[in-house]
Design goal:
Blueprint (H helix, E strand, L loop, with lengths): L5 E5 L11 H9 L2 E4 L2 H10 L6 E3 L5 H13 L4 E4 L12 H9 L3 E5 L4 H9 L6 E6 L4 H11 L5 E7 L3 H12 L4 E6 L7 E6 H10 L7 E6 L8 H13 L5 H12 L3 H5 L3
Parallel strand pairs: 1-4, 1-5, 2-3, 2-4, 6-7
Antiparallel strand pairs: 7-10, 8-9, 8-10
Helix pairs in contact: 3-4, 6-7, 7-8, 9-10
């Protein structure tokens, strides 16, 4: 009877190549093939360590179509590895369809843990880490992004987001509007890389820093925001949500006045967040 292979989910460095584990290297050398989000980028990583294992492209556009073919290989006895561009696969990256299909077919799926940008950022942020929410990338469309942030304004747990360089300034501005400029936050940029930067302060301060320093608009970002906390004023949270909606249709001062009247929140807590 043919024994099925194993699907290994392998974490790779987010920047510093020294962060790859010996077990990850052994696994990448031993499998029949490596499923990679970007074969060019993963090929460069493999070349650094002299690994010649064949690469297969597996990304969001072809994963559904390829999953069953790959499961057939696994069931026939081949072991495969799954990697993303960087970090731990499936964390804001493709792969869950293949993992789901493999598990449904009774194939063993085994993690080879290692680097993760969100965990690395949380470990150095100095924000509460016992309870947190990972939101990944916010919507690219401004209206959808603002709506999502407004829905999170009262979340008591630490909030963690990924963001791209071309949207970081707009996202921070939207966070100031949704959460208030006084909310503590941390901006982690290019973690484990040459220009690694971890900035902390309130959201308004971080927004100003990014807007005035072009270097802080380069690279890959993790944004961490302190949760509203269990003692957060629900009236202020609701007032800011209403104000964010109303200011698209009314002058800011009028929108703040109306939102304050409807929510019971102090007007300065709403209009002052601009």
């Amino acid at each position: 009877m043919q024994t099925s292979g194993t699907l290994y989910v392998v974490a790779t460095p987010i920047g510093n190549l020294g962060d790859i584990s010996p077990r990850a290297l052994d696994t990448l050398r031993s499998v029949a093939a490596i499923c990679a989000e970007d074969t060019r980028r993963s090929g460069q990583l493999l070349a650094q360590f002299g690994i010649a294992t064949p690469l297969l492209a597996l990304h969001e556009h072809n994963e559904e179509a390829l999953a069953q073919r790959l499961v057939a290989r696994l069931r026939a006895g081949d072991s495969l590895a799954l990697v993303s561009d960087a970090g731990t696969p499936l964390v804001s990256d493709p792969g869950y369809r293949l993992v789901r299909a493999a598990r449904a077919a009774g194939v063993k799926v085994s993690p080879v843990p290692g680097p993760s940008a969100l965990v690395a950022a949380l470990s150095v942020a100095g924000l509460a880490s016992d309870r947190f929410v990972f939101e990944g990338f916010l919507p690219a469309k401004a209206s959808a992004r603002r709506e999502r942030l407004q829905a999170l304004a009262g979340e008591p747990r630490t909030l963690i987001f990924y963001e791209a360089s071309h949207r970081i300034a707009e996202t921070l501005a939207d966070m100031v509007a949704a959460f208030g400029g006084e909310r503590p936050a941390v901006l982690a940029r290019e973690l484990t890389k040459l220009f690694e930067t971890v900035l902390d302060g309130d959201l308004a301060t971080l927004q100003a820093r990014v807007e005035t320093d072009a270097d802080q608009r380069k690279g890959e970002f993790v944004v961490l925001v302190q949760g509203a906390g269990e003692a957060a004023d629900a009236k202020v949270v609701e007032g800011r949500r209403l104000y964010a909606r109303l200011k698209d249709h009314l002058p800011p001062s009028t929108a703040a006045k109306l939102a304050a009247e409807l929510s019971g929140a102090p007007r300065k807590a709403l209009y002052g967040g601009e």
